[in-house]
Write a structure and sequence with these properties.
The chain has about 450 residues and is of the alpha/beta class. It is built from 17 helices and 18 strands. Strand 15 and strand 16 form a beta hairpin. Helix 2 runs parallel beside helix 15. The longest helix is centred in the middle third of the chain and has 24 residues. The chain binds 1-(beta-D-ribofuranosyl)-1H-1,2,4-triazole-3-carboxamide (RBV). The site of 1-(beta-D-ribofuranosyl)-1H-1,2,4-triazole-3-carboxamide (RBV) has 16 residues, from helix 3, helix 8 and helix 15.
Amino acid sequence: MTSGSGRITDTKETGMSETYSTGDGFKVRDLGMADQGRMKIDWAESRMPVMMKLRAEHAELQSLKGVRIAGCLHVTKETAVLIETLKAAGAEISWSGCNPLSTQDEVAAALAENDISIYAWHGMNVEEFYWCIDRTLDFKPMLTLDDGADLIFRVHNKHEGLIEGILGGTEETTTGVHRLRAMADDGALKYPVIAVNDAETKWDFDNVFGTGQSSIDGILRATSVMLAGKSFVVAGYGHCGSGCAMRADGLGASVIATEVKPTAALKATLNGHRVMPMDEAAKVGDIFITATGCADVIVGRHFEVMKDGAIVCNTGHYDCEIKIDDLEALAVSKREIRDNCEEYTMADGRRIYVLAQGRLVNLAAAEGHPSEVMDMSFANQFLSMVRLAREGKDLSIAVHDIPEDQDQDIARIKLHAVGCDLDALTPEQEVYLTDYAAGT
Ligand code: RBV
């Protein structure tokens, strides 16, 4: 596929001239970055023991032989390990990124160099984003793999003709699962989907520890500020928000949580955080991160009362949590002061900093979650693809959960890889656990 590739110059609506490497089955930023990308993928592989075990097993079994998979998920070194594992199991792949700012161009180049059909580059616009998704549908996939549900939504709305040939799909993230459950409730979903996000080995690790570490990583790369002593406002104390709060707390920040759900807010207070409405938090916060999965969390009236120097970012899937249009309307000037850090100056001289244009700060300003945690999320993705290839046509058209034994198997392999052993129940303990008559 890479033979006959050439560098083209494309003029986008911005009028700026940009270069790409393109050829049969791919469009990436620059194939010349492939060696650099390959080293990143090698690095990720060395930290993803569950994936490497699955790769060895399924390369032998060829469990996805001839299965065409279209994927739409952040093009990172970890995703490359997933893609190459699917390929090793016999699948044909076509891939696009699921966010305009999350593609690691060197990784995309390495995948194209390895004859994988891929359409992804960092900094694309929305029109290009959907163009890339459409290209991955050209080969009429039998399975779809989503992060945020944009691909499956595109199939349902623009390519209905493909639905008949699709066995099923998977969804990686909370926001996507919400969208798909709403679709299923409306009777609009047309093929079975597995909610990878809802596996315990996904949400309890990726969403909490992955988001916690990578979001702080993104904030630090974009700002290099000291977190100790800062008021760190986390909007949304769900799995992702509580992970961010835990890590900011560990670095000496004073965490404030904002919530709409009483139990989540209560949990935040017992973890030692203050809870208050955003209208109050806006006045005292130094750093704000949104992790709600909802729109319009930080809006104009909040920017109006923020302190000089306030830093605002988002780690939710979509960029609608911070209303940047409101800030644009209030600001008198704006400049990019560092990579992924825009300074807005208000009429009264206050400066507010927005990271990564309000898009996922962990993937846009850093490298996304660490390989170690994506190992488990992507093991769930991989095994769900195998399950759908085998049983998709027999599954009901609904959003399905990951089987419990899959969760425990993945956790067991991971534990062994990090050198931990478990206890086992004795026969007497097994009996005790099912004996409801035993009491005081
Ligand atoms: N995510 N992927 C990465 N390094 O490839 N990092 C984060 C990576 C996924 C994560 O599983 C989350 O559910 C989703 O991105 C949000 O879009």
